[in-house]
Specification:
- The chain contains 16 helices and 13 strands.
- The chain folds into two domains: 205 residues, 3-Layer(aba) Sandwich (Rossmann fold); 174 residues, Glycogen Phosphorylase B (Rossmann fold, 3-Layer(aba) Sandwich).
- An eight-stranded mixed beta sheet has the order 3-4-2-1-5-6-7-8, sandwiched between helices. The chain has a five-stranded parallel beta sheet with strand order 11-10-9-12-13, sandwiched between helices.
- Strand 9, helix 9 and strand 10 form a beta-alpha-beta unit.
- The termini are close together.
- It is 45% helix and 15% strand.
- It is α/β, with parallel strands linked by helices.
Amino acid sequence: MKILITAIGHFFDRPSGSAKLAFDEAVELGRRGDDVWVLAPANPSLPEYELRDGIHLLRYFPAELSPWNPARACEHQRAARAVLARHVPQIDAIHGHVPLSYLGAIEFYGDSVHSCYTIHSPARMEMAIVWRNSGLLRRISAVFALPMINRLEAKCLRRSRVVTALSQYTIDCIGQIHRRELAGKVRLIPGWVDTSRFIPVADRGRVKAQLGWPTDIPVLFTLRRLVPRMGLDRLLNACHLLLGDGLKFHLVIGGDGPLRGKLEEQTRTLGLSDSVTFLGRIEDRVLPLAYAACDAFVLPTAELECFGIIALEALSAGRPVLATPVGAIPEVIRKFDYSWMARSAEAVDIADLLRQYLAGKLPEHSPTELHGQICRDYSRERVLGEFIEATVGKDAHR
């Protein structure tokens, strides 16, 4: 089969949880013998077409338009259709991971192809958060743009033969935003993790030393895009409270984003410079070691966490996940230990959770036990096959 996947970005170009799921899907389809094409917006400095590891990567470059320009969405669809016309005029199935290019593909190929759409997070909720934390013009434009985004997402749901979501939380949000009958067609298929890659290590002290981390105090690790909804400012405030209590620890923050400078300044202002390290983007080969070496992974999300692949990766590496009760996070954490959840996403409650952990007052689970449960519930081998079936249709690989 010839299959098109539309993604928020190519994982090689712009790593993210959504891009990683689309990439894993493409690799698996290619392994099964399908002709796989992945379409995503990108920087014009990159090639429009590239063959990489047997996967056809297509990039489209929409014209730069002001955020309040109503033609912005149409421009994405136009640019996507133009690239498809040049490189892949016929297709058997489409799987969309992002609405605009997916709608462009659906309109280009028509309704005769098998179509599946995966909701990673409700588009209106996602963009409302982005624009609320942007400049004045974007906040003003949101009044007009958010209803349009809502209509585009509803169109994705109606035009798709199959719709999936990663969490019940996301499905419930869709039911509130759109009609219940649209939410009723959404199938829950969770995310997954490569359990052969993210594994516990026998000597965490040795791996800490290898990474240049402290070996004499607990190391807390988090991996986030540095944007407002991730709650890193609250985590830093919580760490300030812990230092005030005289507790010893080191926080390692992986990831990059527009808030990095502001968060680094907050770190200095709070007197945390000796207790916090910003790693920036972590190399893919190093990431499993970072998870396995830390004493605990921290997930301080402030709002709209629709799944959380990073929580699965940390648990698969055998580490506890100390998290806020936001979005879909409780759906995952309650399967392991609900006492790992803060009372709220506020700094004082994050601090209280970390204080309990550092004092040894939270339940412990062996790394082998945590890894084993992830293998049973969220392994790539178990979940990805179900995801592929939705993508290409039930009988495609018989």
